[in-house]
Amino acid sequence: MKCRICGQAASIALRSHKIAFCDTHFLIFFEKRVQTTIRRYALIQSGDRPIVAVSGGKDSLSLWLFLHRMGIAADGIYVDLGIGDYSRISLEKIKAVADTIGKKVYIFHVPDIFQRGIREVAKVLRRVPCSACGMIKRYVMNRICVEKGYNLLLTGHNLDDEAAALFGNVLYWKKDYLWKKDISLDEDEGHLSRKAKPFFLCSEREVAAYAIISGIDYIYDECPFSKGAKTIMYKNVLGNIEEASPGTKLMFIKGYLKELQEMKQRFLPGNLRTDEAGDGYCGVCGYPSGGGMCGYCRTLQKLEIPYTVEFEEYG
Ligand code: Q46
Ligand code: ZN
Ligand code: ZN
């Protein structure tokens, strides 16, 4: 197998694109594709002040490095969930990348604010850890963006993440979510930053190759709470389909985005975001909530902790 560009021995074959590349030409191919996605969907616009949600994993650290290489200045945000070595090692990896690219990272420590890790916070709320984690991360990341003047939050979600989520929504006909997964979400000035996912059309394997060839030292372990998650099962099912029919995942997601644009034009004008957006604002913190007090403030109230949002700034 030879590199399509230089004819040297290829190090990666991309069956969905029917091409193979050596390391150097894979990096060029990958970066060009992401730049095209950014342009086509206007994910990053002139005057934007972006920030990256970093977890220490390959996706977010690759995105951070990619932006740096493209000359797009972006700081990082990390939410330390207080999950023992997993959180500690993740933060070490993030700090190492922040040092290398000379960027700042805002760190919100769940154990400092809630006096316990995410597992215990979730128990108090009678939720599963991922549900409590999602709620806190969305709140804190948005809050830091708005407070520190970043109008665009970028995340490292890749094609496999999006295809698995869409598959789950279709499988159970979650109509409320079905048309609300987008490559970018609008902003609500002063309350919600814009959000975008530049790796939306890049497979997990491509992002992993980008990270490895670029020499990024990322955490290989997944969050311990991700084990047994349905999304992993969906990823496996879609992986089998992809194996038998390369390119299916990309077609699934591209087709969805195309349909979504049409749906938005025909039936769903306005802002489609479902995360924190609601009809009203929290009476305690003033940030958007689905009604009444927001989840973050309710959690603090339940734990009898006075309202606070504090974070560390590194770099
Ligand atoms: S970090 Fe949070 Fe994930 Fe861990 S607790 Fe669940 S949601 S699995 S991407
Ligand atoms: Zn080559
Ligand atoms: Zn609130």
Q: What CATH architecture do you see?
A: 3-Layer(aba) Sandwich
**CATH superfamily label:** HUPs
Number of helices: 12
What's the arrangement of strands in the largest beta sheet?
Answer: 7-8-6-3-4-5-11
Strand content: 5-15%
CATH T-level fold name: Rossmann fold
Q: Which secondary-structure class do the elements indicate?
A: alpha/beta
* Gyration radius, rounded: 20 Å
SSE ordering? EEHEHEHEHHHEHHEEHHHEEHE
Describe the structure.
The chain has 315 residues and is of the alpha/beta class. The chain has a single domain, classed as HUPs (Rossmann fold), CATH 3.40.50. It is 48% helix and 11% strand. The protein is built from 12 helices and 11 strands. It has helices at 23-40, 58-69, 84-101, 110-114, 118-125, 129-148, 159-171, 175-178, 204-213, 230-244, 248-266, 295-302, and strands at 12-14, 19-21, 50-53, 75-80, 105-109, 152-154, 184-185, 194-196, 280-281, 288-289, 312-314. The strands form 3 sheets. The chain has a 7-stranded mixed β-sheet, with helices on both faces. A two-stranded antiparallel sheet has the order 1-2. Strand 1 and strand 2 form a beta hairpin. Helix 1 crosses helix 9 and helix 7 (159-171) packs across helix 10. The chain is globular. The N and C termini lie far apart (44 Å). One zinc ion binds at residues 3, 5-6, 8, 21-22, 24-25. Residues 118, 129-130, 133-134, 223, 225-226 line the site of Fe4 H S5 (Q46).
